[in-house]
Amino acid sequence: MEPQIVKKPALSLVGLKLHGKLEGMDLMALWNIFGPRMAEIKDGDPRVCYGAMDNYNEATGEFDYLAACAAKNTSALPADMISWAVPAQTYAVFPCTLPQVGEAWMTAYQQWLPQSGYKRAAGPEFELYDEKFNPQDPAATLYLYVPIVSAN
User: Which one of 35, 49, 79, 118 has the fewest CB atoms closer than 10 angstroms to its CB?
Assistant: First the structure.
């Protein structure tokens, strides 16, 4: 799977966070809580959502996952929500479906990245669920964004 390489401007995400190992996280429950609350985000765009991941601890396998929307204003956050600043970056973008998401992440990191001429850059990686995404449709496309820089 050959990704598209894109430059994305900085953005601010607002949402609900989980911390832990992938095996112990109930991401579906987080999205079920976050979905009805998206309208609370001031200047947010609920048509496009992000599943952002950061702060990976290699020793423990734990990381932060943020179910979020982009927002222009992060000064007044809804209760229990936080904001993350995502810097302008270059990304390798991998399209996939929900049933393929785990396999797509593995392909990105274990196959494509080691032979790509790139290395992972600092900062959050994320799943992007655009306005065409329907979580009830197993064939709906989402996009995995891996921050990259030249390995040279």
Answer: 79
pLDDT tens digits for range 86-128? 999 999 999 999 999 999 999 999 999 999 999 999 999 999 9
Supply the pTM of this predicted model: 0.93
What are residue 13's phi and psi, to 5 degrees?
A: -110, 145
The fold of the 4-150 domain, in CATH, is: Multidrug-efflux Transporter 1 Regulator Bmrr; Chain A (3.20.80)
Domain positions in the chain are 4-150
